[in-house]
Design goal:
Elements (H helix, E strand, L loop, with lengths): L1 H27 L8 E5 L10 E5 L2 H7 L11 H8 L5 H6 L6 H15 L4 E5 L21 E6 L5 E5 L3 E4 L2 E4 H7 L4 H5 L2 E5 L8 E4 L6 E5 L4 E7 H21 L1
Antiparallel strand pairs: 1-2, 3-4, 3-8, 4-5, 5-11, 6-7, 8-9, 10-11
Helix pairs in contact: 3-5
Length: 254
């Protein structure tokens, strides 16, 4: 059975690659909404050089020229997942293919749940001084803290990220509990932090967002002695890619 599925997958993969390539090209075309046109020459007795004038193709001819739409083949869920998992562009998966159909939405979300969320990380930037006034707000330097994937909520609507039980502050390693008691890593300091989020990329390519702009909640886990951040994961992923798109747009304008 496994051999049969593998053969079936291999035989269908070129067709799926074709369809996904077509979808990508269609979405990236800057003139996709414009009608097709032909060119005809306008007589001009005073000028030996004549410029082509665009004219619309009759609708009857346009209908004949338009190829019949091609639908994607009906494949088992496992094969679709194997095909979509081959992409190296999670942003394209989330922002384009996910909206292609309800089935694609389910496939892409399943891939993010099992592949990209477990590998995500969030590093808060916590300055000691007020960014507006420059006044000293915290007596201690912020420890190096990273939130990583811990689990999903029982309904799988929210992702829970947690810190390690220890963190370095300067050259010394402290327990998260002692940093909390010391005030070096308090809830207020985490709530005010800029969160550098990376999903499916290196931390150097992370994008920034504030805790207040999400539905996330930072809380102290008294049993594990760690900080946790619980947030609607679909909202987080969408805002993450919105921020990446905005950053790219700003760089092009700059």
């Amino acid at each position: 059975m496994q051999v049969y599925k593998a053969q079936q997958r291999d035989s269908l993969t070129p067709h799926i690659i074709y369809h996904t390539s077509f979808i990508r090209a269609l979405n990236s075309s800057p003139r996709a909404s414009e009608p097709l046109t032909t060119h005809k020459m306008k007589p001009n007795m005073n000028n030996r050089f004549q410029l082509p004038i665009r004219s619309k193709i009759p609708e009857s001819q346009l209908t004949e020229m338009t190829p019949a739409p091609r639908t994607l083949p009906q494949l088992p869920t496992e094969l679709w997942l194997q095909i979509l998992e081959q992409t190296q562009d999670p942003q394209y998966l989330w922002t384009v293919l996910r909206s292609f159909s309800p089935n694609f939405n389910a496939y892409v979300e399943r891939i993010f749940l099992h592949t990209y969320l477990p590998a995500m990380s969030v590093q808060p930037a916590m300055p000691r001084r007020d960014p507006d006034t420059g006044a000293l707000r915290y007596a201690h330097f912020a420890p190096i803290t990273i939130f990583t994937y811990s689990s999903l909520s029982p309904d799988k609507l929210r992702v829970i990220l947690a810190t390690a039980k220890e963190a370095k502050m300067g050259e010394t390693t402290h327990s998260m509990e002692s940093l909390n008691e010391l005030g070096a890593l308090s809830k207020k300091r985490l709530d005010d932090a800029v969160l550098w989020v990376s999903i499916g990329c290196k931390r150097a390519q992370a994008v920034s967002m504030y805790t207040a702009t999400t539905s996330g909640t930072i809380a102290w886990d008294d049993e594990e002695k760690v900080w946790t951040w619980e947030v609607d994961w679909r909202e987080l992923v969408s805002k993450y890619y919105d921020a990446k798109k905005q950053r790219s747009s700003n760089r092009r304008r700059g």
